[in-house]
Design brief:
transmembrane helix, about 0% strand, globular, DUF4271, membrane, mainly alpha, transmembrane
Length: about 220
């Protein structure tokens, strides 16, 4: 009987990232228990946004922890997407994952910095701070959903491609709901400056992710 060579994709690196995300979530729940519980109930209640929307402290410990979770969760999903669709053998997968995390971190932090600069230039700091808080809160919450679904891509026996398309559908629905909620909460302001809002969406919410996609595809 002729032996058949079997290829197994190692998930050791992904397990480290997953454990790191779980550690950060445990730390956030331990240090900020009430805030964490309010945050995780965001899908059912807007209590967290109502209570915390006046703080606008991006460097607050809980916000930093959840932003880190967001970056790692999205980067993990992007890496899994690349691994799912590439026909190449990812011999240096650690380097690729590190590049994805670095690139996405840069985009997220750059977007926030540019938004803060624009707010300062046009003297609309309070408006932009509220918008950034609302947007980032929803994105951080969605990243928890992405993280949970990514676990199925890593460890589940469910066929990867149908599961991937299901995850993409859930992400699109979640992002659409986020945009709807933000527009609803700021409808009066957006209706006055709708052209600038559309310009902002195209320039700072769509373009950076197109650039990230191009970079990963080129690699």
């Amino acid at each position: 009987m002729e032996a058949i060579e079997r290829y197994i994709t190692s998930n050791d690196l992904l397990t480290i990232i997953i454990l790191l995300v779980l550690l950060l979530l445990s730390l956030a729940r331990t240090l900020f228990q009430t805030r964490f519980e309010d945050f995780t109930s965001l899908g059912a209640s807007g209590k967290y946004l109502i209570i915390k929307s006046k703080e606008h402290k991006l460097l607050f410990g809980f916000n930093i922890l959840m932003l880190t979770v967001h970056i790692l969760s999205v980067s993990l999903f992007v890496f899994l997407t690349f691994r799912l669709f590439t026909t190449q053998t990812l011999e240096n997968s650690g380097n690729l994952l590190l590049r994805i995390i670095t690139a996405y971190s840069f985009i997220v932090l750059l977007k926030i910095t540019v938004e803060k600069i624009i707010a300062n230039v046009f003297d609309i700091d309070e408006i932009i701070d509220t918008y950034i808080f609302q947007k980032q809160t929803y994105l951080n919450f969605i990243s928890l959903i992405i993280f949970g679904l990514s676990l199925f891509l890593v460890y589940s026996d469910i066929p990867s491609l149908p599961l991937f398309y299901l995850i993409i559908a859930i992400i699109i629905i979640s992002l659409s709901y986020t945009l709807y909620e933000i527009i609803k909460k700021n409808l009066r302001l957006i209706s006055r400056f709708w052209f600038y809002f559309i310009l902002y969406i195209c320039a700072l919410e769509i373009a950076p992710y197109v650039v990230l996609y191009k970079l990963i595809s080129k690699y």
